[in-house]
Specification:
Oligomer: single chain
Shape: globular
Number of strands: 15
Order of helices and strands: HEHEHEHEHEEHEHHEHEHEHEEEEE
Distance between the termini: 42 Å
Strand order of the largest sheet: 9-10-11-12-13
Structural class: alpha/beta
Helix content: 25-40%
Strand content: 15-25%
Amino acid sequence: ATLELRQRVAALQEVLADRGLRPGHRVAVMLGNSDDQIVLIYALILSGLVWIPINTKLRGPGLDYPFEHARPDLVVGDAEFAERLADSAAARLAYVSIDALHEQAMAYPAATLRLEDSAADATLCVIYTSGTTGAPKGVVFTHRMLRIASEAVLQVADVKAGDRLLLWEPLCHIGGAQMLLMPFLAEVSLNVVQRFSASKFWAQCVQVQATQLHYLGGIIDILMQQPAEQWPARHSLRTLWGAGVSLTNWAAIEQRFGCPLRECYGMTECSSFATLNRTGKPGSIGRALPWLSVELLDSDGTPVEVGQLGEIVLSSEVEGVFLPGYLDN
């Protein structure tokens, strides 16, 4: 399987090079989760190309924005999004379907993997934020930041050799992107499903014998609302990890799943996670990860007293933990 993956990535690298793409060029990707997409992302990373994941839920002006802002050199899409892309700003850019790319890759059955030796601070991808403070901001995410984000997952999800990770998270979000290096950092398998589905989740979980559940975007509430007969008699989950479980729901969730909760907190701009609750104290986001320091400061930059509100300020002695900047902003 490793050899097959290696060959598929190498062949795609050749196809991308044939299209005139060189290190630093940008490739926007609007795809549902699949092994095809992951193979493409590995090819982009190894070729020194900049991956721009596009949220598949975007429509109208929201969908125009990343194309107008990032001005990618190539757009890759799924058939299901072709119509939406054709009606967007992407229509003015070079486009290829993921199926066509993989078909072209068949012309290179003996391609060998090439590594573009990208600098640690070179841009690996541009991840667009949800736009809480106005238009979405393109977080310039470096090669080192993805490595740090992945190291954070190892700690937060309590990853051990032999674990089987279920990848349902959208890859346009750091929650999904940071999973892609897992099999390179630990002896684990990454099992990709198209998206989270409440009706299919337990069957998928049982099929791959998943050991961790990343609860992102309220999925734990959805599963908790399911009647008991929809749950398997036994499951393989060992750890629940994510953010946002309320103090009042904590004990009930741990009891029903039979797993400890490991809450974390952070943002894309600081290589994903900043804190981890290792002790299981209900309602706590825990303490800083080893490479970060967390302070609560007042408006003058002075630490606040215990129990007082302050601004969360992160710092690190490790170079490259924080984003170098927002794209053209």
